[in-house]
Amino acid sequence: MKQDFADIYSKWERSHDEESAIRKKTQIEETQEVSPTISVLRKMQVQDSLDLHMRKLEEAVDATKSFIDNSWQKKLRKIRIITGKGIHSPNGEAVLRPAILEVIRNNNHVREAELNPPASEGGSGAVVVILKENK
């Protein structure tokens, strides 16, 4: 007995609830959040900023640590830390920037840091930080 495709499909259709399977799959897909890719994160706008101008070194380091941790807890993904260029520092050498970069490097919530962002995001006087996802 040779069966054609229509017969096979009819038997399968009677034994399977295709619409229920589709509804179930759709519900699963709707509840799953997709994490943005790194390229999407790089293109997104900065969500919050910390300006360290006029702060002493120790205060700036503590503020940066708190800012990164609080931003991560708020589930932010892209932040900016304004260090300034150091032109008002003794000998015109940056004091805050190297210390802040060290804080950023050692923070477990940091995924990536852009040291010289575009002028629209602070330029060489700022650091743009992409944080890891807080699930």
How do the helices and strands follow one another from N- to C-terminus?
HHHEHEHEE
Strand order of the largest sheet: 1-2-4-3
Number of helices: 5
Round the Cα radius of gyration to an integer and report it.
Answer: 26 Å
Overall shape: it is: rod-shaped
Gap from first CA to last CA: 57 Å
Uncertain segments are none
Q: What is the percent of helical residues?
A: 40-55%
Question: Which structural class fits the helix and strand makeup?
Answer: alpha+beta
Q: Give the overall average pLDDT.
A: 87
Number-wise, the strands total 4
- Most strands sheet: 4 strands, mixed
What percent of residues are in strands? 5-15%
Detailed description of the structure:
Helix 4 links the parallel strand 1 (48-51) and strand 2. The protein starts with a helix and ends with a strand. It is built from five helices and four strands; from the N terminus they run αααβαβαββ. The chain has 135 residues and is of the alpha+beta class. It has a four-stranded mixed sheet with strand order 1-2-4-3, with helices on one face. The mean pLDDT is 87.
Give the helix/strand layout:
Elements: H1 5-15, H2 18-31, H3 38-43, E1 48-51, H4 57-73, E2 78-82, H5 96-105, E3 110-114, E4 126-131
Parallel strand pairs: 1-2
Antiparallel strand pairs: 2-4, 3-4
Helix pairs in contact: 4-5
Task: Give a short overview.
The chain has 135 residues and is an alpha+beta fold. The chain has helices at 5-15, 18-31, 38-43, 57-73, 96-105; strands spanning 48-51, 78-82, 110-114, 126-131.
